[in-house]
Write a structure and sequence with these properties.
Blueprint (H helix, E strand, L loop, with lengths): L4 H14 L2 H7 L6 H11 L6 E4 L6 H8 L4 E6 L2 H10 L4 E4 L7 H8 L5 E6 L17 H9 L4 H12 E12 L9 H10 L1 E9 L9 E7 L7 E8 L2 E9 L13 H13 L1 E2 H4 L4 E3 L13 E2 L2 E2 L10 E5 L1 E2 L7 E3 L10 E5 L3 H11 L2 H11 L7 E2 L2 H4 L3 E2 L5 H15 L5 H18 L3 H14 L9
Parallel strand pairs: 1-2, 1-4, 2-3, 4-5, 6-8
Antiparallel strand pairs: 5-7, 6-7, 8-9, 10-19, 11-17, 12-13, 14-16, 14-17, 15-18
Length: 467
């Protein structure tokens, strides 16, 4: 390379910092630093004779890393004139062209680059941006646009579809994309297509790597064709290294893709999924957001775990109020809400046939087991604020228990409701509740240790008071 890494980092950072923040946000532009692109290139271990393309190259960090790793046939393309000119200067041994690789077909993009065949490796960090009115969509290909809109209506979705067109059948695509692609329902169509028609080599959780981007990211690496008995390597970025978590058979996933930390976590998930019914199957009433606009309606801020901040818990009724905001630090915050209380949009309500079943479910919702399931298997270990919407609550496994344990849990919830909030006695009863829920679900001692350690490490210390 004719330029040192320090000089490249300085020049590329200077350019990115000169861009207007609103411009970057509107166009989903956040460049990958060369440190991460180097880690990715080292991981891919590319045959240096193969062709490498970054179709949304920005200032060329992936091109720089590819050349640094000895690759000889390196290509980049971007729609921004200034970034293309800088990349040509900084990464002079690559071929860089100005064009729009997202809205142009793969054939057109290959012609722009002077390539007669598809590439072996396609790498990069495509823009993430919803396709709203102010996004310029420069294509007359109605069918492609319809496919993108049906698959999540985002620029990174369009970039993934184009990647399939640009890469050889046995070629590799490695893209940094939003982590929520793995489980959010609007991306289901493309997710299913990848699971059905491609081979996922690895999914690497890199967390909130880009400080100015809301959300977390993954590196999705796939082969552009299916393979028999394919294993997906699940990894995590730790201290600038990709650390192994576990390998999962691709056929295990039908739609949502969960990132299991290890085989133990995978085993607990299978046990909960295959043994018990779901909240959505057992709850006979309403599950959804509050709708009241009354001045007397309860807001999320007015409830606490097992109670209200400024009113007593009703004794009879059939509804439970849940704070709609969910965070890993606090877990579920919910209370029995009787019969006549109304709730605003900041509350999720569920109703059931009677007061006992409501309090039974309320006890389970506050348990470490339930919060472990929600955090790991509904929110995919996201550390961001989520919502306790019906689509998540309905997934929770519920034991239809009519033994003495049912009554014990109901009575324990009633005792917690009358106890001084967050007193030593309150915490003792909360631990008794956790132990009882584990017993109801048949969770082993080793599984309890694992779940407890995971939740305690994530939750705020105030919810694990041992005094």
């Amino acid at each position: 390379m004719s330029i040192t890494i320090n000089e490249y980092m300085y020049r590329s950072n200077l350019f990115e910092n000169s861009l207007d923040e609103q411009y970057k946000k509107n166009n989903g532009i956040y460049y990958t630093d060369v440190r991460l692109s180097n880690i990715i290139l080292n991981y891919l271990d590319i045959d240096t004779s193969k062709t490498v393309l970054d179709p949304c190259c920005g200032v060329g960090s992936f091109l720089y890393s590819a050349l640094s790793n000895g690759c000889k046939n390196v290509f980049g393309i971007d729609s921004d004139t200034k970034s293309v000119n800088l990349t040509k200067e900084l990464v002079s041994k690559s071929i860089v062209k100005k064009s729009d690789s997202i809205w142009k077909s793969g054939i057109e993009t290959l012609k722009v680059l002077g390539l007669k065949e598809k590439v072996d490796y396609l790498i990069g960090n495509p823009p993430y941006c919803p396709l709203e009115k102010d996004i310029v969509i420069d294509t007359k290909d109605y069918h492609f646009l319809r496919k993108v809109k049906d698959s999540g209506s985002n620029l990174f979705i369009a970039a993934l579809y184009r990647a399939f067109e640009l890469t050889k059948d046995d070629g590799i695509i490695s893209y940094i994309i939003p982590k929520n692609f793995l489980h959010v329902s609007c991306y289901s169509k493309l997710r299913k297509e990848i699971l059905r028609n491609k081979s996922i080599i690895s999914i690497i959780d890199i967390g909130s790597y880009f400080p100015d981007v809301r959300g977390e990211q993954i590196i999705l690496t796939i082969k552009n064709k299916p393979s028999f008995n394919n294993l997906i390597e699940i990894k995590k970025l730790v201290n600038n290294k990709f650390v192994d978590c576990c390998d999962i058979e691709q056929t295990f996933y039908k739609d949502e893709i969960l990132l299991f930390k290890n085989k133990e976590e995978y085993s607990i998930y299978c046990k909960l999924e295959n043994t018990y019914e779901k909240f959505g199957d057992l709850c006979t009433g309403y599950v959804g957001r509050g709708k009241s606009t009354s001045d007397n309606a309860i807001t999320g801020k007015e409830i606490k775990k097992f109670g209200f901040k400024n009113r007593k818990v009703p004794q009879k009724g059939n509804q439970v109020f849940i704070q709609n905001i969910y965070s890993a630090e606090s877990g579920i915050i919910a209370t029995f809400a009787g019969k006549n209380l109304e709730a605003t949009q900041t509350i999720t309500i569920f109703t059931d046939g009677d007061e006992k079943m409501c309090r039974y479910i309320l006890g389970i919702l506050h348990s470490r087991l339930c919060n472990f399931y929600l955090l790991k298997f509904c929110y995919n270990s996201s550390k961001l604020t989520m919502h306790t919407d019906a689509k998540y609550l309905k997934k929770i496994p519920l034991v239809r228990d009519y033994s003495d344990l049912f009554d014990q849990l109901v009575n324990l919830v009633k005792l917690i409701e009358t106890c001084d909030y967050m007193s030593s006695m309150w915490f003792e009863m909360l631990e008794s509740l956790n132990a009882l829920v584990y017993k109801i679900y048949g969770i082993s001692d080793n599984e309890i240790k694992f779940i407890d350690s995971e939740i305690i490490s994530l939750q705020s210390n105030r919810w694990n008071n041992d005094k």
